[in-house]
UniProtKB/TrEMBL annotation, chain B:
Occurrences of domain Carrier (ranges): 17-95
InterPro entries with a match to the protein in the record: ACP-like_sf, PP-bd_ACP
Source organism, top-level taxon: Bacteria
Protein's name in the database: Acyl carrier protein
Species in which this protein is naturally found: Streptomyces pacificus
N-terminal signal peptide: none
Entry-linked Pfam families: PP-binding
Length: 177, 98
């Protein structure tokens, strides 16, 4: 597992520049999350403070399967898929904490089994269309916790333009809310 | 030991009543419940056959209490969700401690 800090455009395997922050490549993320194509919705994570906050990138290609139907003559990324990208960044921040706490050499694949479910979406505002060619910058900050539930503030932007922001509740285990 | 006067006791009771009513209004607004604060009793259970809250609602209340009173409710403080009275008791106890 790579645990080095990298700028948004850089490699996840650079040396740490800021103490406590981690970066994860797509290969790292595939070891951290159980999601796979066509539902793996995050390409890279950086500035991750395990269990606290993080940033991520999702590059939106015209080949995304949802563009086949949304819409055939006017490609727009569905808002729920933007939320899914945000939620997967949250899962990376979550799993990063588990990996940090684990013994050196522990299998990250086991940690991926602790990825839970989306519990609620609230006050989510969508302020810009996302189309093929856009690169989503995702941000997540974990908040209050109670039992297996965790409140998270999330935001997505393209360049300097905000795309969506709101709050999620996620579970930390594979038990329904 | 000082003994509270009738006026002091009445002021305390009034203050408590206002806190309970404020908290009921906040919970109803936050959770979008279709009830009036006046029909929620101070000792009515918040879960099950009371206000029928679920675990997601409970976390909303944790966020709300932290934001409004700067008091954090943890997994060990579940008795705070017993009723409106229990919740106000918990907040007052934590505020007195800090």
């Amino acid at each position: 597992m790579t645990a080095a800090t990298a700028p948004p455009g850089g490699s996840g395997r650079r040396a740490a520049a800021t103490a406590g922050k981690r970066s994860y490549s797509c290969d790292d993320i595939k070891r951290m999350l159980p999601h796979r194509w066509p539902m793996l919705m995050i390409d890279r994570a950086y500035d991750v403070v395990p269990g606290v906050s993080g940033r991520g990138v999702k590059s939106v290609s015209v080949n995304e399967p949802f563009f086949a139907g949304h819409y055939p003559d006017h490609a727009v990324m569905p808002g729920v898929m933007i939320v899914e990208s945000m939620a997967q960044l949250v899962a990376v921040v979550y799993v990063a904490e588990i990996i940090e706490a684990a013994q050196p050499g522990a299998d990250a694949g086991d940690a991926s089994k602790s990825v839970g479910y989306l519990g609620s979406i609230s006050q989510m505002r969508f302020s810009r269309l996302v189309v093929p060619g856009d690169q989503l910058t995702l941000e997540a900050t974990l908040g209050e916790r109670l039992g297996e539930l965790r409140r998270v503030s999330v935001r997505a932007s393209v360049g300097r333009e905000q795309v969506a922001s709101g709050s999620l509740v996620v579970t930390s285990g594979r038990r329904a809310v | 030991m000082s003994v509270a006067t009738f006026e002091q006791i009445r002021a305390q009771a009034q203050s408590r009543l206002e806190k309970n009513t404020h908290l009921k209004s906040m919970i109803i607004d936050r959770l979008g419940l279709d009830v009036e604060p006046s029909v929620v009793s101070d000792n009515q259970p918040l879960f099950g056959r009371g206000l029928e809250m679920d675990s997601l609602d409970t976390l909303e209340i944790v966020v709300m209490i932290n934001s409004e009173y700067a008091v954090l409710i943890s997994d060990d403080d579940f008795e705070a969700f017993g009723s409106i009275n229990a919740l106000v008791d918990f907040v007052e106890a934590r505020e007195a401690r800090s």
